[in-house]
């Protein structure tokens, strides 16, 4: 083969490969008419007042990207996310009796956060997703971790639960 034949073959192959890459996948994303979403601060029925901001921050940061849309102000968003924090619970799922028999030794704790949530399509005025009792859980080791780490894991689990629930509807 001559240099020109090799070059022509290379250019043709490159055009074929590049032309074949001209597609995109939107699996699991919102309906096509929804391009923007706004996350509203949730009402909070618990005594843990910081949860409102922490949940808002986690959802604002992760939810639009996971759903394949952009963040927007509530007044102009195609869809909004709203809801209520209904519960916060700290439990001890793993413990053992203490050597002296007085008290149990806590090995692990669990943070559990419960919410009600709706994603509302403001273009067609319909509810895209409704979760009436979503629960996020996060565990942490009593001796080496903090409740904040368990709470962060529970919030992450909640956001993923919203994404999974919303995507299961379309």
Descriptive overview:
- The protein is an alpha/beta fold and 170 residues long.
- The protein has one domain (31-167): Double Stranded RNA Binding Domain.
- It contains three helices and six strands, in the order αββαββββα.
- It has helices spanning 3-20, 50-67, 147-167, and strands spanning 36-39, 43-44, 70-71, 79-97, 104-121, 126-141.
- Helix 2 (50-67) packs across helix 3.
Largest sheet: 6 strands, mixed
What's the helix count?
Answer: 3
Average pLDDT taken over every residue = 85
Low-confidence stretches: 15-28
Backbone structural class: alpha/beta
Tell me the overall shape.
elongated
Structural domain tally: 1
Record field, number of beta strands: 6
Top CATH class: Alpha Beta
Q: Percent range for helical residues?
A: 25-40%
H/E series: HEEHEEEEH
Chain-wise SSE layout:
Blueprint: H1 3-20, E1 36-39, E2 43-44, H2 50-67, E3 70-71, E4 79-97, E5 104-121, E6 126-141, H3 147-167
Parallel strand pairs: 1-3, 1-4, 2-4
Antiparallel strand pairs: 4-5, 5-6
